[in-house]
Specification:
Layout lengths: L4 H10 L3 E5 L5 E4 L2 E4 L7 H9 L4 H10 L1 E8 L3 E10 L2 E9 L14 H6 L4 E6 L6 H15 L3 E6 L12 E6 L7 H8 L6 E4 L5 H12 L3 E6 L4 H10 L6 H11 E11 L6 E9 L2 H8 L6 H6 L9 H10 L5 H7 L21
Parallel strand pairs: 7-11, 7-12, 8-9, 8-10, 10-11
Antiparallel strand pairs: 1-2, 1-6, 2-3, 4-5, 5-6, 12-13
Helix pairs in contact: 6-7, 7-9, 8-9, 9-10
Length: 360
């Protein structure tokens, strides 16, 4: 048993989502969204480096010493898997570990809208799950892949950096590839994917225009493609995809995206006040013919009003999702106000509405 495993055991027992180990600091965990110090001595660079290197593959140690940054996955048997990131900072080495539960929660167990099941059963197209770092994108995508695994008879291919949730084949054949270990890059894996007879492709992160272009091509050629981006809303996601490309290509990409897009789920996490844990609020855009026309005609600024009027198709705005959680007593008014788009809707719920100095 590695020395660091004791931290993972403690983290798992209290229900923390992240562990921060940093030279010159005590260990810190993130519990229900808040950072809390662990009663332990201050970790010094050499001691922490030795502790971290004990669980690090040789190839990753070499990469870290050359670049100062690495990502990989680590598993503690019978506890959980962890997504690890090492980096250098002014006091020495540091690391962050995100716990990935062994049990994949279903769409129903997570309380996600049923429309996500419909998106999972589509024959082809592009479905994007977006949100800031730590907003639960991986958990939502894992639930959707799990639903496909139980309800389809297809080949699911995932490309991840690193592999987070491990899926066992149920009704589907599942092949999970890790960037850096099983393939050089997302781009190389996506090129290969088109010759590997997949029905569903999961792209862990759409980072550059080549990866996005290949994902669009896969979606257009009869595959159902799931992907993630670090964007905060459906309209921002569309803008981000188009703006990644050189200006002379943007018209063509706008047309490709309009044809292939099936849905965008943009989510945010909130701390629960009714019980321990966190809950996601989802903005959902469904690519109806009207939405596709707006993308094609470069009228993305009208997307938000389309979401407001598209409830019968399963669409919902982020503010509506937040309001539902607030009215059910699941989150507090201050959180709702802070993360809402139209803050005026939430001011009446606050006992002392703050004055936003950025809007003065």
């Amino acid at each position: 048993m590695a020395q660091i495993d004791a931290f993972f055991k403690m983290m798992h027992e209290v229900g923390a989502s992240d562990l921060h180990l940093s030279s010159g600091s005590q260990p810190i965990i993130r519990l229900h969204g808040d950072l809390q110090r662990v009663k332990y001595k201050v970790l010094e660079h050499e001691e922490l480096k030795k502790m971290l290197y004990e669980i690090t593959p040789e190839s990753k140690i070499k990469e870290f010493e050359e670049t100062g940054d690495i990502d990989f996955a680590y598993e503690v048997p019978n506890i959980a898997r962890y997504r690890a990131n090492f980096f250098l900072q002014s006091r020495g080495i540091a690391a962050v570990f995100r716990e990935i539960p062994q049990k994949i929660l279903t769409i129903d167990e997570l309380g996600l809208p049923p429309i996500l099941k419909n998106l999972t059963m589509l024959p082809k197209g592009l479905v994007l799950v977006t949100g800031p770092t730590g907003s639960g994108k991986s958990t939502t995508l894992a639930a959707m892949i799990d639903y496909a695994n139980r309800n389809r008879k297809d080949h699911i291919l995932t490309i991840e950096d690193p592999i987070e949730f491990v899926h066992k084949p149920i009704n589907c054949l599942i092949n999970q590839r890790e960037v850096g270990r099983d393939t050089r890059s997302f781009k190389a894996a996506l090129r290969g994917a088109l010759r590997e007879d997949p029905d569903i492709i999961l792209v862990g992160e759409m980072r550059d225009f080549e990866t996005i272009a290949l994902a669009l091509e896969a979606a257009e050629t009869g595959h159902l493609v799931f992907g993630t981006l670090h964007t905060i809303s459906a309209s921002k996601t569309i803008d981000r995809i188009i703006e990644v490309f050189p200006s002379e290509m943007q018209g063509q990409i706008r047309s490709s995206l309009a044809d292939s897009l099936r849905g965008i789920i943009a989510q945010n996490l909130f701390k629960r006040i009714d019980k321990k844990g966190r809950v996601a609020a989802l903005e959902i855009l469904i690519a109806t013919p009207a939405v596709r026309n707006l993308i094609r005609e470069n009228k993305v600024f009208q997307i938000n009003s389309m979401i407001e009027t598209g409830r019968k198709y399963g669409m919902q705005s982020l503010d509506d999702a937040i309001m539902k959680l607030l009215e059910k007593g699941i989150i507090d008014p201050e959180q709702a106000y802070n993360k809402a788009v139209n803050k005026e809707k939430f001011r009446p719920f606050l006992s002392e509405p703050p004055k936003d100095f950025t809007e003065v």
